[in-house]
Amino acid sequence: MNKLTVKRIIIGKPLKTSALGEQKLNKLKALAILSSDALSSVAYGTEQILLVLSAVGFLAYWYSIPIAIGVLILLTALMLSYRQIIYAYPQGGGAYVVSKNNLGENAGLIAGGSLLVDYILTVAVSVSAGTDAITSAFPSLYQYNVILAIMMVILITILNLRGVTESASILAYPVYLFVLTLFILIGVGIWKVLNGEVPTELHTPMGTTVPGLSIFLLLKAFSSGCSALTGVEAISNAVPNFKEPSAKNAVKTLTMMGLFLAVLFSGITFLAFWFGIAPSGEETVISQIATEVFGKNAMYYFIQVTTAIILILAANTGYAAFPLLAVNLATDKYMPRIFTVRGDRLSYSNGIVILGIASILLIIFFGGHTEKLIPLYAVGVFIPFTLSQTGMSRKWMKEKPEGWKGKLAINLIGACITFTVLVILFTTKFFQVWPVLLFLPFVVFGFHKINKHYHNVAEQLRVSKKHSAIKMEGNIVILPVAGITKVVENSLAYAETVGDVVIAVYVAFDRESERRMEEKWKEFRPDIRLVTIHSHYRSLIRPLARFVDTIEEKAAEQKHNVTVIIPQFITKKNWHNFLHNQSSLLIKTHLLYKRNVIVTTVPYHLRK
């Protein structure tokens, strides 16, 4: 089975470019693909609040209710703000495009860089949280967390390489199954509460005084709860993936996502409070709630399985948004152009593969521990949140369209709230989020270097009206040889057809091999000049490069071209390449950087 067959089995047959329209998403599929990150965050958002409050004790858990209300207010502000962003920038790009157009280049690059890193974190956090849910139900698998997470990332990467529509069709069912399952859990749980089946002694009464509780701790708990809002921006980045009218469909999908997220997050937080759930390193909050509501029966395991699946599939939000954001940055020449190339299945496969590799490295580095990743995850998304809201505010003040004051108010409120959360995150969790201050400048610096390179290349390759190329009168061909073989004979035949002067060069590592080569050459091709060079330090590249430099200087005086022909035999099977020293590739790689030397390869294909 060859590589092509394996690729077809894994990824599928190539799609025609004309089928691109068929790869657009309707609202139901888009909700599953682009909202899975936000919806899945209810599985750990409440838990993050309780983890902070647990530092004070059981009495403080009632504060999870007012903190959840604060998170819902922020969610409302973000939903209204991103509705406006989608309508204003239907070409996608979200915070990157908004910030770049309204706040300047660096603001846009900070937003774009933050989101790129955040989408990598999305995959790592979601998959790590998913494996946590699996090991909560099956503790014997706990030691295999990292291996399970890596396998899941590879699986999701392959699904996305098969195309947007196909991955959406497969992943939509478990996403909606998770939403339905949580609605059942919340509904049954609230029913038991209303029927008095849950003792009130399980939780602390609202308003209970908590000794030792500080404003700092409450702000830290609030910032931790804001991790439930990650993924809200993904729809604004992926507007081009929607069927027409794309902006209108994206806004409707955003609204549905907001409603689902608000209900699920509120319900889980309320039940966690009422049942007196305390965070545990061995069992998730949802697992504990499901145990209290249903017991360890089939329904409990069904909830755990669907939770694990949605947490893993939440990574798909990153796979849907990362490649499109990379396309926007690459189009503006801030990222390599390979990110703009569509693969066989019309997905931006390079972005998908890079995202998968980066996520796996992150999972390995952090050992699959979700709690270590979530603070970075939250900061990575609140930086672009703040920049996008500020950028939209400036846009309305500058353009002043009809109804601009109301739009300005929405974005200003959003900017103030998200900036406040960002300050809280840096203040309360500085020792967990400080890497952001290190890698963001590095990422932006990298964007600028890439952009500068592309501009320099464009400037040097631009054709002027005046013909500046100097016409050369002849061609000197240099042919490095390692012996007298059919490969050399084949290359010499070609060299004589393109060169006015042909010089064969042999680099010897000892005097005896140098003498033998000179004798054999006289018998083989006495009409072609052979230059032998003795390499005292057994280096092949350096003496050959010096010889080429010498010929190049003389050729420039006589207005001659210099062409180096590299003889190379091609093995019948790829693995045979490892049995040879590949010196021809080393020579070619080195000589390609010489400014005035033409390098060409003459292949000789082996039949056996």
Unreliable stretches (pLDDT < 50, length at least 5) are: none
> How do the helices and strands follow one another from N- to C-terminus?
HHHHHHHHHHHHHHHHHHHEHEHEHEHE
Structural class: alpha/beta
Residue-averaged pLDDT: 82
Question: What is the count of helical runs?
Answer: 23
Strand order of the largest sheet: 3-2-1-4-5
Specify the overall morphology: elongated
- Biggest β-sheet strands, sense, barrel: 5 strands, parallel
Classify the oligomer.
single chain
Please provide a written account of the structure.
There is one protein chain. The protein is of the alpha/beta class and 608 residues long. Helices cover 65% and strands 7% of the residues. It has 23 helices and five strands. It has helices at 3-11, 27-40, 42-53, 64-88, 94-103, 105-137, 145-161, 164-194, 215-225, 234-237, 246-274, 285-294, 298-313, 315-331, 349-366, 370-399, 404-428, 430-433, 435-461, 486-498, 511-524, 541-557, 583-591; strands at 474-480, 501-508, 529-534, 560-570, 597-605. A five-stranded parallel beta sheet has the order 3-2-1-4-5, sandwiched between helices. Strand 4 (560-570), helix 23 and strand 5 (597-605) form a beta-alpha-beta unit. Helix 14 packs across helix 15. It starts with a helix and ends with a strand.
Write a brief caption for the model:
This protein has helices at 3-11, 27-40, 42-53, 64-88, 94-103, 105-137, 145-161, 164-194, 215-225, 234-237, 246-274, 285-294, 298-313, 315-331, 349-366, 370-399, 404-428, 430-433, 435-461, 486-498, 511-524, 541-557, 583-591, and strands at 474-480, 501-508, 529-534, 560-570, 597-605.
